[in-house]
Amino acid sequence: MSQMRLNPLNGRWVTIVPNRAERPSDFAPRRQNEDLGRPCPFCPGNEEETAPAVESTEADGRWSMKVVPNLYPAFDGDDPFSVHHLGPVHVQAEASGIHEVFVYTPEHEGGLHLLDDDHAAEAMFILQRRLREHASHPFVRYTQIIVNHGREAGASIAHPHGQLLGLPFVPGEILEEERAFARFAGGHLLTTTVEAELAVGERVVMVDDDVMVLCPFWSGVPYEMLVIPRQQEPHLQDASDQSLAAVGRAIRDAVGRLNATLGDVAFNLGFHSAPHQHGGEYHWHAHLWPQITTQAGFERGTGVMINVIAPEVAAASMRGVTASI
Question: What is the DSSP string of 266-313?
Answer without folding.
Answer: -EEEEEE---TT--SS---EEEEEE--S---HHHHHH-----SS-HHH
